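Shipment paperwork, digital attachment
Item: protein structure file
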Amino acid sequence: MQTSDSQRNYTKFAIVAFWTLFLVGCGPNGCSGGGSALPPTPTPTPSQVLYVDESGLNQVQSLDSTSGQPRATIHVGKDPIAMSFDRWTTSASIGPSIWVANSGANSVSRISTLTNTVVATIPVGSNPVSIASDELWAQGTVWVANAGDDTLSIIDKFTNTVKETIHTAGRPFQLVPGVHFIAIAESNDTVEILDAVSNTIIGTIKLSAPIAGVAIDPGSDAVVETSDGVLHLYKQSGLDRTGWPWSPSFTMTLPDGAGPLSESDVGGAQIWIVASQSKGTVQMLESTGALGGLRSLQSTMQINPVGLAPEFAQRSIKTSDVYVANAGGNSITVIGDSVGNQKVIGTWALASGAVPYDVAFADQASVASPSPAPTATASPTPSPTSTPAAVAHMYVANGSGKNVLEYTAPFSASSAPSVTVNIGTNVWGVAVDSSYVAVEDSTGFIYIFNAPLAANASPVAQFQGPANGANLLFDSNGNLYTGTQGAGVLEYSPPFSNSSTPSKTITGDSSSFSLAMDMISNTLYVGNLGMNQIDVFASPYTGAPTSVTSPGTYSLATQGASLYGADAMSNAIDAYNLPMNGSSTPAYIITATNPHALAFDNSDGTLYVGDQNGSIDAFAQPLGASSTKAFSFTNGIVEPVEIAIDN
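Attachment content:
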């Protein structure tokens, strides 16, 4: 089945998550000012505004940071996953900006905090997952980490265009600004240090375990967290890039393990905030000595049930309260903070299917950015733009119906196929990305069509896949994966042709049928039909998988911090919290009739279930053990084996 892109993300688990953080004035969400190295800091307005990316709804929500009351809803690109507040303005009509990385749209949205409208949409690289602005030194630049193609896009905010693209050594998933440098957390156990003036790599920190997150403290030292729950402090001799090379100072093991890392400086006390995604807690640590001294654990707060991962925590510089985005719980948790006496003081429910991954604070005070060099010409102020929502399509591999069906949103009990493409043999798989619809028949033959389907569509490529057909999946780079029911998982890379052959074979799975993927960490989930288990492969899929006993292997789908498996034999859909380990069990079970196919509509979070008896059943958010179908449609449906939705 075609996974939902928004999912992300516990990469986030994957811990490759997109771990953002912030500090006395600076972090992946931008910098809040303060300190002799910073530009003059304007006085904030009395009430700060909290921005929340609602990744599952493709929008950003503006909230009053005191009451949690909504102020504005701003529609952005697909799967917004990271934000950065930039107080420096290039135009009085725009004012301060919120920059948003849209991971599923390969774009960045620029939001004016004066009007709460999108004033620019900027194409960047593949799968942007982190973003940082230049508030420390006002060079008119925004950096974007593109996890899908191992690059950084460098945006000129005077022209709202990409002025340079830099290749990184590994998959970048977090950007953290210091003074004249950017720390880049990468998937190859490495943190690279970028000189933000010349945009060249000037140093590398190499560790022996995967990086979970990075923070830069007020002294421009680096705190690096690894996935084994260990913090490493690297000190430098200067306050900016001239202090390289950095030297390791000390390590500290976190009691609740790794998770998104933040750091802030309130009243001279450096506070570390670590959200444990596997345990649903937030750990607060305080400096007990001079900068670089030992830290002590102040408190551990249970924010969510175990496994409902808190994704990111941000501290308000106005109140010192901490705001936690809970992707698994569709909520914001507020922690009242006084050192040693932290406690949860409120939880704000968000819209169903919101899936929040990041929070950022903004105030209406602004500082004019210095004009660019005389050779640069500032472009006219862009007019506020709104991007109309694309019309969604649902694709159904219709099994013994020997065809693939396309349905056009909105979906309802009266939905009927808008396009039918006859294949001629049983159809076992269908997947869709922004360019193509891929179809696989029971003999393993794969057909590639342009998306969306047109009446009387003919394939632009067709080639022999595995001997036995199975489910299909596109990743964020356009690679196509298919199960083989016995020979691992095959990957096919674009461009596709009639002579396409596998670019990779992923081994370690004895009976691969269904597939799902977390699009940020690129963790691959494989339904091992013969062994009644889900096999979990970490990117780049070269090691042995983690296996989880589960009968829910007919179809897999990810949404937020959850994985769903269709268990047709038990008339059940098993919901698992992410990340998964060898002892994972369902967090809850939804009763459904003969479920063989699963797909999420990212516009509202509705789960669509293919009932092998001949219907598509819709389950609305919020999902839970008591969920029942909201409606069904049967027009055209014979045997729904796989469903894919293109939003």
